[in-house]
Amino acid sequence: MSYKIETQNLSAWFGSKQVLQDITMKIKGNVVTAIIGPSGCGKTTLIRCLNRMHELTPRAKVTGKVLLDGEDIYGENVDPVTVRRRIGMVFQKPNPFPMMSIYDNVAAGLKLNGIVDKHRLDKIVEKSLKAAHLWDEVKLELGKSGASLSGGQQQRLCIARALAIEPEVILMDEPTSALDPTAAAKIEQLIRILAEDYTVVIVTHNMQQAARVSDFTAFLYLGKLVEYGSTKDIFENPKSELTEKYITGEFG
Amino acid sequence: MRSYRFRKLEDRIMISLAYAALIIALIPLASILIETVGRGLSAMSFNLFFEEIPPLGQSGGGIGPAIQGTLIVVALASVMGIPIGVFSGIYLAESRQSRLASVARFLNDVLTNVPSIVLGIFGWALIVVAIGWSVIAGAIALAIMMIPIVTRTTEEAIKLVPSTIREAAIALGVPQWKTTLTVVLSSAKKGIATGILLAVARISGETAPLLLTILGSRFWFSGFAQPTAALPLAIFNFSQSPFRTVDLPRAWGASLILIFIVLAINIAVRYYTREKYG
Description:
heterodimer, A: alpha/beta, six-stranded mixed sheet, 10 strands, B: MetI-like fold, 12 helices, 0% strand
């Protein structure tokens, strides 16, 4: 089996503070990979390095390689904008564009990239909303504001928005932390289904969630990759003492 | 129990004081409006809008050229000042850290507080001396007045756009410049429009810079390089007139029209930038 994403000696800084140290890991395609670890361990920074969002923070720096299908996304001639079209992202807090309707939110990525064919947009919007399991709830009110939806619906709207540009990878940064358990459960189901077509990398501080949704789990601590393996192994048979302590709730 | 009643009394006194202060603050505002509307309305006539300005003391005529002149000068100043102000504001908001931005921000704040008569002299020395009293000179002086106001309010409005909105667009593979010009700007448009409005309203009533640049005129617009009339100048001239019975009503009429123009711009901008999803 080939790997979709591969990081090689990936390190990241904010100013002079190093937040990731020599992360080398291979992420498989069409599976869900969870990144767990205590607050401040660099989980979010790690996935933000995977779609070149990290470098947008002032004084942020990245070294090492991130290979997407074998090609380094930090390579000299690579346009970060193109990378981000192939690797979508869903954020911690649902962030639909407040001044846009539901329809426009989903179509935003395409419209802003110059696609105006109404017929094509209609099709993609419907397909994306269906894939995000939101279509049935909003199909009669696509013109309403995206901000008028509930938190869980907003997050699924953001997922639909990410899917609309047809990425290959979807990064999720604690996508359910701002949601109630019912809404979170819906997102978790959705993540499982998305893995059939996409490569999903999810950051979570919720270990049960990692155990429920992921196929592979990486445990990060103080910017280092402590352990990485199948979710089953990490949770049932961790090799590192640190991982075991974290999983059993001794710290974190 | 005594202390509770005492506290209630205190409470009532404070509220009464606050109301009293509010009413005192509203008295001048209300009396300006009532006086202007009352006296201005009685000066209203069809001719007032469409006739050329008569010499002081002469009956008949109107203030048509002054209305026309104000609209032209303010429009020309806006065409020059708004884009420069908005784009400067975008620059300041987008590159907060840069050295140039902090210097520019400081200079901009200084410029905001420059007395308008100084901008008038500037316009006079720079343009009037070269090409003579003209619409262009007045518009440039007013544009320079607008720029710092528009720049500052644009910067503030953009800073208020949550970074999550910007990140959402960037993560969709939208280039940064496009993100700023579309998603960020449209989230900030209400604040920006308010700033523009403030600036337009402010320059519409300016007299000092115009005295030194467009000079004033009794006739219709005759070219951008020619002097022109304007409402504030007309108000100034008519109110200085020794022929009170003839000219003072015209000053009130011009005042009312000026207030109406500012109000109309205000309503138009508010309507255009109203929250689609309230």
